Amino acid sequence: MWLDQADGFAEIFKGYIPYYLLVVFPIFIIMSPANPVAASHEFSVYRMQQYDLHTVPHGCRSASFNLEGRSLTSWSMSRHCVVARIQDITIDQFVEIRSKAGALLLVLPNNDTILTNEQKEHIQLLEMAMMQQEISIPVYFAEWTPDFDDIIKDLQHSFITDDKSGTALEAMFNTVSSNGYQIVVSAPNPQRLDSKPVTIHGKLVGRSATPQTIVIAAHYDSSSIIPDLSNGADSNASGAVALLELARIFSRLYTSASVRGGPSLVFVLMSTGHSLNYFATKKWLEEQLDSTDATLLQDVSFVMCLDSISSGPLTMHVSKPPKPGTPAQSIKSRLHVPIVHKKINLADELLAWHHERFSIRRMTAFTISSLQSHKDPSRNTILDKSSEGSLRNLVSNIKITARGLASHIYNLTDEENKEDVELYDNALNVDEAAIRHWYKYLSSQPRAPQIITATANGGVSAALERALSRYMEATVSAHALDRREPEYTLYTPTRAVLYVYSVKPAVFDLILTLAIIAYLSLVYFVIQFFPRFYEEYAKLVTGKVKVN
């Protein structure tokens, strides 16, 4: 009986081959464990900093790409986008990638507080190296996510180079079986940003008829390789917070005529700092000194710039050592800080410190900072974030600065009458709650020049203006760039959306095609020769020839 059923099965093979294929193959596809639709991921990414300074290009010059993702050890050509953790890539590898690869995608640390000091220093030096000159390929940064971590691990283990494979067969198998990723960013071409930096200033008038003027200045922008993540807690949220607290303290003292100091105090907040060569300071000085009504900066005693004062003890940076008996020497001795002397080098692309802009205009100026050198990489890093330790340093340094400045203004010393010193100390008490609030706020806001410019009518600039207005009449000045020969140029976009598609390598498609052809050929020949095979089998079992 089973032979009769086999006859019917053989007849099906003879007469219904096309219908069999149409039914069986879709069933095989549906039952297959592989998903025919490629997996995809979507991430928000940040484009590397791009700007021109004195027509010299810096940073990334491209925005879009559609390339195959590869790891640091497996990429080889311009059709590859190198994907790696920022702490894993070396400066030498970056230089090679910049000249030969198609794009670079760096994933930021999941938690930078667990990085070692060596890793932090490496990241800061890498940022400096990347910003030295222009980069033609697109460079993006992504915040850590579990999906990104899986992609990096997959790329590291999937593409094994020939020299790491034991045999040629193993190398071929690795090539065929590996999982690949197609990485796509569709972003508009970089466009120039209409930038108008601002300066916020206010004045407390002294009691003298023709008083000297003391200027306290700080820039409030920040700089790093990623504009949207340039929060700059130490550089220079700390300086801006210190200026606001000094403005609060001395506005209270200057309110009463009986305790008002002799010199006038001018407080100035600038929106562009060292990364753009203190452009706002330059324009503001031109407006104040070159105008017919130049009364704000008459008879300047000295200019004290506050820059990065929350990372440790204070240091005074000067272009000329202060002479004995001068106001600068007086404030130095009252602050009890060491001096670092560096001459101004106008041949450099960037000025070293904020006070040099004032010194060029023949003002006595110095910078108070916790940093020992203007080349310290912590001035331009995404790792510059707030902490409880930095907050304590900031509070302590503001106390030191307020006490030193007040002792100079009122010519007081610790040897004065004990009751007077106690009253003096009580008047100079800092508001730690306000310092904490402003320090946390500013260090949580991206303050790159591109971001500040984009929110000129609000955001950080408006918040600082309102804060300074509480203590004195605040004036905001917007500075226009020279359209023909701009001192600097900023570019957008600063962020984009990145798509990652899980794909197989091209050789896999070739091997799969050959396997399908071989499989279909085998099925075809099995179907064609099954009746003959059945006849031979029936003859062997029954000893008779099967008659159709």
Automatic annotation (TrEMBL):
Coiled coil: none annotated. The chain crosses the membrane at residues 17-38, 506-527. It holds the Pfam family Peptidase_M28. Residues 200-252 form the Peptidase M28 domain. One of its GO terms (cellular component) is endoplasmic reticulum membrane. This is BOS complex subunit NCLN. It is a single-pass membrane protein. Belongs to the nicastrin family. One of its GO terms (biological process) is regulation of signal transduction. It comes from the Eukaryota. Keywords: Endoplasmic reticulum, Glycoprotein, Membrane, Signal, Transmembrane, Transmembrane helix. InterPro entries: Nicalin, Peptidase_M28. CDD domains: M28_nicalin_like (cd03882). It is found in: Endoplasmic reticulum membrane.
